[in-house]
Amino acid sequence: MPIRVLLADDEKLILGGLSALLATEEDLTVVAEAEDGTKALNLAKKYIPDICVLDLNMPGKDGISVIRDLHYAHPSIRCLIVTSHAAPGCLKQALMAGARGFLPKTTSARELASIIRVVHGGARYIDPDMAADAISVGESPLTKREADILSLAADGAPIDEVAERAVLAPGTARNYLSNITVKLKVANRHEAVHMARQYGWI
Asked: Where is 6: in which H helix or E strand?
């Protein structure tokens, strides 16, 4: 039986080209294509592919969110993340969500086909350069609660609104954000959000 693959990428040219190239592999068959994360999730639940190849950044749901949802709904589906711009911390987030592979979009279709076979066989594949970048950044200095609160404040909402979202008193929310800026050695929460996103901590 061929390995059944779902492809998801919001760039139509990449999606179409990859689908056509993988179709030339006798042991692979592309059962579904999606241009956003929400559609990818729905199609994966419908077709139950063996492997999902997901772009990291897509409209609707990003690749990590899709993996997280599929990991609980259909744990037999193995997922790979492909990306052109990945913050180092995204690798850890993807692996924690249940990703079985993480690789750059510079990977050729033939290499991807080989990686799909490796992952289908039960192994993981992490691009060596991306793994090295992730290791060099190190662990996030933020606690989970701090990261959650910084995420809630990422859109620049006023303190009262952030506090309401976090179910905290305004003074407590302000203290959290102040402590976060001190930990990250930045001037304000906007810089903290930028840094945390850059390193994939939120």
From this structure: strand 3-8
- Which of 35, 70, 55, 60 has the alpha carbon at shortest distance from 103? 55
SS3 3: strand
Q: Which helix (H) or strand (E) holds 125?
A: strand 125-126
Exposure on the CB side of residue 96, measured as CA atoms within 13 A = 8
Amino acid of residue 117: R
Q: What is the pLDDT of residues 171-201, one digit of tens each?
A: 999 999 999 999 999 999 999 998 888 787 8
Q: Where are the domains of the chain?
A: 3-137, 144-198
Distance in angstroms (rounded) separating the CA atoms of residues 12 and 16:
6
Q: Does domain 3-137 have CATH number 2.60.40.10?
A: no
pLDDT tens per residue, range 133-146:
777 776 789 999 99
Q: Residue 44 has what DSSP assignment?
A: H
**With respect to CATH, is domain 144-198 assigned 1.10.10.10?**
yes
